[in-house]
Automatic annotation (TrEMBL):
Protein name as catalogued: Nucleotidyltransferase family protein
InterPro entries: MobA-like_NTP_Trfase (IPR025877), Nucleotide-diphossugar_trans (IPR029044)
All copies of domain MobA-like NTP transferase, residue ranges: 16-178
Species, as recorded: Streptomyces edwardsiae
Length: 205
C-alpha cells in the first residue's frame, strides 16, 4: 500500500530565497532589483513569482543600494536580509540568505535570482514539488541543462555555505553531489535568460 502525506503543504516547509543584491555593473551600476518591469521594481515581480509558485515564506537578500530598494519596492511580509559583502559575488548572498533561514523552521530553500523574469510561477511550483525531505536537492533544467530555481534541503545548507565563493554560488557543491541532484525539466514553461547587459533590457516589459 502506498502512503501519501495527505494535506502536507511543501510551501510551508520550503522558504523562497531571492538573491537580489547585485549592482548591475554591466548595466551602468543600476541595481537589478530596481530595474523596472511591468511598471514596478523587478524585485517585486520576482517575489510575486515565488509566492505564486507556492512559497509562503520569502527571504530577499539585498546589497547594492539596499536602502533605496527598501524605500521604493513594496515587499510586505518578506524578510529582508542585508548583505554588506555583496560586491564579493553571489556566493556571499547565498550564504547570507541561508544564515537568515536558521531557526525559521524551514526545511529547504528554493533559491531564485532577481534578474531572470522569464522564469515564472510554473517553474517554481515544479521545483518545489521535488521537495520530500531536508535531504532534497533539486534544480530546474532547461533542455537538460541545470539552471534556476534550485532547491536545497536544510541538510545541505552547511556544505553549500562552506563552498559558496565569488559568483559561483553553489556550483561546486552541486557538481560534487551531482548523483543526488534531481533535475526538473522546465524548458517548456520558462526561459532562463539573465538580464545582465543593456541589450538584455529588451526582455523587460
Amino acid at each position: 500500500m502506498t502512503t501519501h502525506h495527505r494535506g502536507r503543504d511543501p510551501g510551508a516547509e520550503v522558504a523562497g530565497l531571492l538573491l537580489a543584491a547585485g549592482g548591475g555593473r554591466r548595466l551602468g551600476g543600476r541595481p537589478k532589483a530596481l530595474l523596472t518591469h511591468r511598471g514596478r521594481p523587478l524585485v517585486e515581480h520576482a517575489v510575486a513569482v515565488l509566492r505564486a509558485g507556492g512559497c509562503t515564506r520569502v527571504h530577499v537578500v539585498l546589497g547594492a543600494r539596499a536602502d533605496e530598494v527598501r524605500s521604493r519596492a513594496s515587499l510586505p511580509g518578506c524578510a529582508l536580509v542585508d548583505n554588506p559583502e555583496w560586491e564579493q559575488g553571489m556566493g556571499t548572498s547565498l550564504r547570507a540568505g541561508l544564515r537568515s533561514l536558521a531557526g525559521t523552521g524551514a526545511r529547504a530553500a528554493l533559491v531564485s535570482l532577481v534578474d531572470q523574469p522569464g522564469i515564472g510561477a510554473e517553474a517554481v511550483a515544479r521545483v518545489l514539488g521535488a521537495y520530500d525531505s531536508p535531504d532534497a536537492l533539486a534544480s530546474a533544467a532547461y533542455d537538460g541543462v541545470r539552471g534556476h530555481p534550485v532547491l536545497f534541503g536544510s541538510a545541505h545548507w552547511a556544505g553549500i555555505a562552506a563552498t559558496a565563493t565569488g559568483d559561483r554560488g553553489a556550483r561546486a557543491y552541486l557538481r560534487e553531489h551531482a548523483e543526488r541532484l534531481t533535475l526538473v525539466e522546465c524548458g517548456d514553461v520558462a526561459q532562463a535568460y539573465d538580464v545582465d547587459t543593456e541589450a538584455d533590457l529588451a526582455h523587460l516589459e
